[in-house]
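Quarterly update from the structural biology core.
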Amino acid sequence: MSVAELSFPELRPLQTPDQPPAQAPLEHRLRRRTVLFASILVVALVAALCVDQILRSGYFTIEQVRVDTALQRVDQGLVERSTWRNINGNYLTVDLGGIEQALENLPGVYQAVIRRVWPQALAVSVTETGAMAQFVPLGKSGTARDHEFINLAPSNQLPTVPVLRAQPADRQMLIDVFKQILPALQDVELEPLALSVSPAGRWELELQIGVDTPVNRFVLLAGRGPVKEKVIRFASSYAMALRSRGDMIAKVDMRYVNGFAVRWRDDSAVNQVQLAGLTGSGG
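Predicted structure, tokenized:
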């Protein structure tokens, strides 16, 4: 056998484990990051310009205001006009809370709810008040230029509009006290006509019994201190002992440590002052 006839096995290079690719040079990685950041920035700028164009253009304008509530006391035209006056922006940017606040400042509107109706309308829902009070700063005449109407909850029903007088700084305190004493007075069918607090903190309440006549009115002097507790105490005593003689009451003085004093209209009694035998804190 010759050498040429000899066969040798095929020689192949040994396989080695896959080697990780060589890392890109630092400059290449930085270039890729720069391109990515620039792309994101361009997209953000284009999006911002598109949004700005939509918001500033004439698109999405509000074309209709719709009152969904069947109003009994408040004029519907007044609600619509006030809504239009307080629209600032388009369908997407209008401040619904600001419009609601403006409507709730209207006499007779206890609560207002505004919602968007696609594509160009606002729907207004109104809860009407059951009664109103009138705030007049001390020293003012109570003309239309000076007064401010306070809308009370729908559960409060009053045939008249009570007048609340105080310094402007005491306005909210006065309103809160009035709302607190109102249920006790209504429970005994006493109608508040006026409530005032002086700069020195002295409270005075004018009440009415039934039909509006001068003889059916009387003043309750509460003085300083917890006026709510004093009014509630008087209301309880009125229900128990004074209701039958209510039209004879000229004045009630709660400025006693124990009980209170009643001045009667009866001339034959020489406007006798009677001290009720109830205990409580004075002021």
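Residues 277-283 have pLDDT under 50 and may be disordered.
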